[in-house]
Design goal:
The chain has 42 residues and is an all-alpha fold. The chain has helices at 2-23, 28-41. The chain is built from two helices and no strands. 0% of the residues are buried.
Length: 42
C-alpha cells in the first residue's frame, strides 16, 4: 500500500512546491527550499 501511494505523494509534493513557488516567487529563501526538495525527490 505504501509503495502504491509513494508516486502520488511525490507528485503531490512537487505540485505543492511549484504552487508555493508561484505565490512567493520573490522570496529567495522559499525558492532555495523548493529547489532543494525537488533535487531530493528526483
Amino acid at each position: 500500500m505504501t509503495a502504491k501511494k509513494s508516486p502520488y505523494i511525490k507528485t503531490f509534493l512537487f505540485f505543492y512546491i511549484m504552487y508555493r513557488q508561484m505565490i512567493a516567487i520573490s522570496n529567495a529563501e522559499n525558492f532555495h527550499l523548493a529547489t532543494f526538495f525537488i533535487k531530493f525527490l528526483f
